[in-house]
Amino acid sequence: MTVALYARRKSWPLEAVTVRLRHFKIHAADCADCETKEGMLDRIEQDLELSGPLGLEQRSKLQEIAEKCPVHHTLVSEINIRTRVL
After folding, report:
1. Is residue 83 part of a domain?
2. Which of 5, 37, 51, 86 gives 15 a disulfide partner, CB atoms 3.0 to 4.6 angstroms apart?
């Protein structure tokens, strides 16, 4: 949604955005660029498909915008979940 809104505001020829996610559990020791080195980590691989006659610079900027969206920020930050039973 963030990507589509940005493209619309810029009047870029974005026709559709498709996001595909894959979730894996990986050993922290196998992740060279992760801070945590013990236990298991969640890894999410994301494919961002941008449809429409966009230039390379536009596609690059839309990828940058996708990485700044609120959902992306939530997923890459530390998450603390507290459950209450009512």
Report:
1. no
2. 51
Q: What is the three-class DSSP state of 33?
A: coil
Residue 82 belongs to a domain: no
User: How much is the pTM?
Assistant: 0.76
How many structural domains are present in the chain? 1
Distances in Å between the Cα of 3 and the Cα atoms of 23, 28, 38, 64 are: 22, 31, 35, 9
| 41, 31 contact by CB (below 8 A) | yes
Is residue 13 predicted with pLDDT exceeding 90? yes
Mean pLDDT on 29-40: 83
Report d(CA 1, CA 75) in Å as an integer. Answer: 16
